[in-house]
Specification:
The structure holds two protein chains of two kinds. By secondary structure, chain A is α/β, with parallel strands linked by helices. Chain A has eight helices and twelve strands. A five-stranded parallel β-sheet of chain A has the order 2-1-3-4-5, with helices on both faces. A four-stranded antiparallel β-sheet of chain A has the order 6-7-8-9, covered by helices on one side. A three-stranded antiparallel β-sheet of chain A has the order 10-12-11. In chain A, strand 4 (75-79), helix 4 and strand 5 (97-100) form a beta-alpha-beta unit. By secondary structure, chain B is of the alpha+beta class. The chains are: A alpha/beta, B alpha+beta.
Chain lengths: 228, 460
Amino acid sequence: MRILVVEDDVQAAHYLIEGLRQSGHVADHVGDGEQGIEVARDGLHDMLIIDRLLPGLDGLAVVETLRREGIATPVLILSALGDVDDKVDGLRAGGDDYLPKPYVFAELLARVESLARRKTPTETKTRLVVGPLEMDLLSRRVRRARREIILQPREFRLLEYLMKNAGRVVTRTMLLEKLWDYHFDPQTNVIDVHISRLRAKIDRGFDEPLLHTIRGAGYLLRAPATKW
Amino acid sequence: MMLRLAKTSTFRLTSFYMAAFALSVSLILLYIYVNTVVLFERQVEAGIDAEVASLVESYDQGGLAGLVETIRRRGGYSSDNFYLLTDFFGHRIAGNLNGLPVKALGRRGWLEFPYLVATANGFDRRQIRAFRIPLDRGFSLLVGRDVQTRRDFGHLIKRTQFSAIVLVIVFGLGGGLLMSRNFLKRINTISRTIHRIMAGDLSGRVPVGGSGGELDRLAGDLNRMLARIERLMTGMKEISSNIAHDLKTPLTRLRARVETALGKGDSATWRKALKHTLEEADRILHIFDALLLIDRAQFGGLKDNVCDIDVGVLVNELRDLFAPLVEDAGGALNCRVERGLGLRANRQLLAQALTNLLDNALKYGVASSCPPVIEIAAHRHNDTVVISVADRGPGIAASQREHVLKRFVRLTPGRSKPGNGLGLSLVKAVAACHGGSLRLIDNNPGLRVELVLALNKIGR
């Protein structure tokens, strides 16, 4: 993926770009909003990461300008303002996701990759398959290797989200946002417990685990054959 | 000093009123003067007219001799009435005036002239108003009246006007200065107190007199404001020393760990130290975030993003989120919600507040022997919705309940459990910014925390 980073803090930009390159992406950097708009207009980038507090043109104004011009490149807004209300402002301005600073790089990467997937709209599937795991979205049934797995409604939605993001890391805060629409950090291991229950249902009794914990980042659902 | 007095608003006000008063006194006196003079003049003229008419009549009937006779009869030297009959050359034929004044030569109709009257010590100068009418054969008749009284009255009015203005100015200035001095004295006391406070002594108070006047009211308000500022300052000091303590402790720990790790040579130690450093940094950042959020909630900056909330839905979501956690600890999370309870609130904040309460119940609401039993409930009470989170743990002593709502207050000895002591402060701030309140109640056993918020009927 080619990613444009609009960030005035050189050190922060360097940290971000280095991380993105190490994860196999191509990253470019501009230091202010006007340049950001100019470069984004060329349409060379698959994603924009925009800092909210920029000198001159503010990050939200950049996003608004781009959206008005019909440029639909996915935008992740970064901001030192981490309040719920600030998040809502950022999403209203046309951002696709919002991450408060300071962030864990794994969290950012997970969100970037999740956004990239959203960009290519897949036709509405009625069946999800990850390796031996199958989910029928109409009859709401889940099977692994032909064995029926009974899930609670919340567990079903959790698994659905993980399967749609199969092969990509999903963080705890992403799950809390997607499944509960809670945009704060509860500072407890609530999500871990939900995951371990789900894991008990889909992985127990099988040789190869499907649901993995990625330390310091989140969770990953993947088919056994694919290499991480 | 005089200059400062003259600059006071009291003095300016008095001066203004003084000028207005002087002006109105002058106007009244002028009005009286003009009216009186006009009346007097009319009377004089009417008298003279009547006199002239009767004299002309007597001339017509009795000729020159008759007229001379009438004049002699009427005009004694002591009379206020003056008569003068002159011939063609202006020579006196009869009357109590010695001769025609220079001003009256060749003139007819109304005229005024001065006239000297002999008195015991010299002459008295008086004013005469007269009417001169020509008769036939060059004779002419002048009839006049002494109008010196009118002049005297005019002078009296002028003198009164002058002295009134002088008096008004003297008393006005004096009173103004006196009042301003009193006022200035009070203001000076207040300003001295304020200077002392600005210099750092927050305990200073403005003296309040007993009269209950507007200055006393001002002084009272100032004192109340000072008391509030002092309370806030004390609070601020408390908070900053708490922050200093709560951030210094992890920062010191962090520093010590880094230092120790640097002293050793192997990368495994470094890795471990870096990991701890990261965790500690995250903890510190979280404290900052919580503090900022509390401040924003307290200063009412969360009026946006308020929506209609079905309490039942919210509570079920939270039950859903927390139930596995409680069940894993071997306990139970019970839920008891009345139907149809609605609220207008910031959903994120409210959820965060309730999450904090549930988290607290799990962490601190557990008796050592038995598994946690937590109940989250919501019911309607008059026009409010009461959302409560209750546990069966050790509870909080009644004397501590107020204290525990303060920032950074943690009751667990030795700070053995993770947490920053800001959870309940945030809940309280969230309740306050929604116009609600927070209550800590004995659950017998355990603690029940009640969030009381204004009811909003669903569907409205």
